[in-house]
């Protein structure tokens, strides 16, 4: 069975706190920490775009890339027992480099600012190993949300497994962000932080980010009908 590949610093951090986070050490050893669910926010697209693939940098046959720092976002989806969740759909959405979302209440008033070359929303189906992959941009802050973030959902069939978001580890805006501050548990905060690292030898300054999503369902649960 494929097991999560935690960042060494994250593993040490969570290991140090694990004994106080659970009733027994055995439970900590056997189960993964669930990704905390978070608010969907007001800007999940109210009109899904025609292009919903996993490359948010290029729209359709357009050759002009989006503005922003190109980021290769990869990761895996697991259940709490460490089993990969295959054939699930991971959706992401975020504002563009000009701080505009793909939503009529945001992109309408800010039409002149919107980056028309940024897809703003994408989907990817997980592999047999639970893997997903996107090409997008490094998130940016905007008025009201000082912590740059990427929203995501995981769905399987007609069932939504989790809605949440992740933020940039070490960003100064995290401390002033109301959504981040709403997570009172220090472990939950750690679980939504992601490192954005330079891609070695990239000539355009690309970044890479890896994020594991742990849902509170098993694959068998996910195959059930509507909630």
Automatic annotation (TrEMBL):
Keyword Plastid set for record: no
Residue ranges of domain Intradiol ring-cleavage dioxygenases in the record: 40-154
Coiled-coil region: none
A molecular function (GO) term: protocatechuate 3,4-dioxygenase activity
Transmembrane in keyword set: no
Pfam families membership: Dioxygenase_C
Superkingdom classification of source: Bacteria
Keyword set, alphabetical order: Dioxygenase, Oxidoreductase
Family, per entry: Belongs to the intradiol ring-cleavage dioxygenase family.
UniProt-listed PANTHER family: DIOXYGENASE, PUTATIVE (AFU_ORTHOLOGUE AFUA_2G02910)-RELATED, PROTOCATECHUATE 3,4-DIOXYGENASE ALPHA CHAIN
Protein name in UniProt: Intradiol ring-cleavage dioxygenase
Organism: Frigoriglobus tundricola
